[in-house]
Amino acid sequence: MESAYQIFAGEITAKGKGYLAIQHCRTGELEELLNRGRQELLNQGATELFVASRDPGAPLEEGCFGECRLEFVRDILILQRELSQLPGRPERLTLEPLTRARGGAWLALHNECFFEMPNSATYGPADLERALEEGHRCGFALVDGVTVGVYELDLTQDPPEIEGIALHKDARGQGLGRELLYGTMGLLAGEGFDCCKLLAATDNESAFSLYRRTGFKAAGIQSKWFRMLPN
C-alpha cells in the first residue's frame, strides 16, 4: 500500500487552520509525506497547520522532519459515563428541539459557539440535514426564553454520543455548561440508554475539567494532534 494522507481545508477560509491526516505511511517515508502535505496546505492558504496519524504503524512524535517541526498540541480523548445515576439536572436551563424552520438559526449559533474550540468544524447545509435525521437529537439551550447555546446528540452510535454542547461566549462562566451537560445526559437516559460517550480535547481545559468532575472516564485516545511549524 502506498503512503497517503488526507487534507482537510474547510477551516482555512474562516480560521486559517488546515489539517493533515496521515492515512498510511510506509517505513522511511514519513518526512516526505509530512512535508508534501504541509506544502499543499500552505498553497491553499493555511496559516496554522495541524497533523495527526491514522496509521497505527506510523505514530507521530515531537521533532524535526525536514522543512517542518512537530509540536504536540492535544489528545482527543474518548470519554464514557454510565447514565444510571445522573449527577444533577438543569435548574435554569431548558432544551428546545431543532426544527427545520429554525435550522438557519441553529447553524449560525452552532458555528459561533464552536468557533474557537479545538478541532471544531464549520457547519453547513449538509450538517443541518444530518442533524435533522432520525437518530439525531439536536437543538437549542435557553434560559428564560433566551437562546444561549446548542446541543447535538447522535443516537446511532453505540454507546450514543454527545457530539457537541456549547454556549455563546456571553453565557459562559455561569455554570450553564454544567446544566447543558446534565440536560443532554437526561435526554439520553430518557431514551432508554444506560451509557454515553463524548470526545474531549485535553487542551480545552474548562470542558475537560467539567467532564471529569461529572464522572466521565477516559476510554481511549481517538487521535493525537501536532502543530506543524517551519523548521
Write up this protein:
The protein has helices at residues 12-15, 30-43, 103-114, 125-132, 176-190, 205-213; strands spanning 4-8, 17-24, 48-53, 63-65, 68-82, 93-97, 136-143, 146-154, 161-167, 195-201, 217-230. The chain is an alpha+beta fold. It has 2 domains: 4-60, no CATH class; 79-222, 3-Layer(aba) Sandwich (Aminopeptidase). Strands 1, 2, 3, 4, 5, 10 and 11 form a 7-stranded mixed sheet that branches. It has a 4-stranded antiparallel sheet with strand order 6-7-8-9, sandwiched between helices. The protein is globular and about 55 Å long.
Secondary-structure topology with pairs:
Layout: E1 4-8, H1 12-15, E2 17-24, H2 30-43, E3 48-53, E4 63-65, E5 68-82, E6 93-97, H3 103-114, H4 125-132, E7 136-143, E8 146-154, E9 161-167, H5 176-190, E10 195-201, H6 205-213, E11 217-230
Parallel strand pairs: 2-3
Antiparallel strand pairs: 1-2, 3-11, 4-5, 5-10, 5-11, 6-7, 7-8, 8-9
Can you tell me the residue ranges where pLDDT is under 50 for at least 5 consecutive residues? none
Count of alpha/pi helices: 6
Percent helix range: 25-40%
Structural class based on helices, strands and sheet pairing? alpha+beta
In short:
This protein has helices at residues 12-15, 30-43, 103-114, 125-132, 176-190, 205-213; strands spanning 4-8, 17-24, 48-53, 63-65, 68-82, 93-97, 136-143, 146-154, 161-167, 195-201, 217-230.
